[in-house]
Amino acid sequence: MSLGSAIVLSSVVIAVVMLYGLTKDRWRWGPFVKRANLTFLAIVAITGTIAGALYIWNQLPLALARQTEYAGLRLGISQDEVIYIKGVPQTVNGELETEGPLKGSRPTIEKDKLEKGKQVRDYDDWAYNGDYSRINVTFNMKKTAVTAIQCYSSDKLSRCPPILGIRDGDSEKTVIDRLGVPAISRIERLSIPGVEGATKYISYPNLGINFHLEKEQVYYMGINDSKYERGS
User: Fold this and answer.
1) In angstroms, rounded to a whole number, what is the distance separating the alpha carbons of residues 138 and 96?
2) C-beta of residue 89 within 8 angstroms of C-beta of residue 109
3) What's the angle, vertex CA 123, arms to CA 121 and CA 129, rounded to 5?
């Protein structure tokens, strides 16, 4: 309790005592005290009931359902709908490199540097860059519907929208405690040329969500539909 609160409470108590001393012979304090006691007990009972209900609610298992919306977008919507909601993407990812030092990766292309005659709608992977984060939107092969929505965080400081209460920066233990043991879990080497390292990929196909971790912390997370092929 702060000093100010203590002074106010003490003043109230003193005022009540003085009032009783001045009016005890003229007022009927007995019924008033009785009603005050009953009111206090009722408040205590109601508060205890609410606190108990909240505790029981928090102990109930989390109702988990397949995720279809993330970062303001929804699986299955068209490219035009994405542009309407998010605007034109700053960058897109090109076709998968099949040879050379960048084999297995997809080049990042700024929208202002696309090949002549090309537009962002010709690509199936878009990126929206933010402060220390990036939202990736992936479409099906026909580029008619969103199949995956993911978020990358460069510093793991809660830059991404949460998924079922999980944020970037959360530990692997936190993910498992909340969602259970993942159906898919594997260590993967970094595919960046000239960079050594390893990450972990965990996935919950029944929920349509996945997480990428480094040093046991989430840095990349997202949702996808059942037809999404990771890495395609």
Assistant:
1) 14
2) no
3) 90
Most confident of 4-18, 44-58, 122-136, 182-196: 122-136
**pLDDT tens, residue by residue, 146-197:** 999 999 999 999 999 999 999 999 999 999 999 999 999 999 987 666 667 8
Show the tokens assigned to 37. Answer: 């006691």
| CB-based burial, 167-191: b 16+ in 10 Å, e otherwise | bbbbebebbeeebeebeeeeeeeee
Q: What are phi and psi of 219, to 5 degrees?
A: -125, -15
pLDDT of residue 106: 82
Q: Tabulate helix, strand, coil % of the chain (nearest 5).
A: 30, 25, 40
Position of tokens 């505790």? Answer: 55
What are the structure tokens assigned to 17, written together? 């005592």
- Rounded to an integer, what distance in angstroms lies between the CA atom of residue 50 and that of residue 140? 48
Model confidence band, residue 34 (pLDDT cutoffs 50, 70, 90): low
* Alpha carbons 46 and 63: distance in angstroms, whole number: 27
Structure tokens at 121: 């709608």
Q: How far apart are CA 71 and CA 202, in angstroms?
A: 20
Which amino acid belongs to residue 179?
L
User: Token match 């260590």: residue?
Assistant: 187
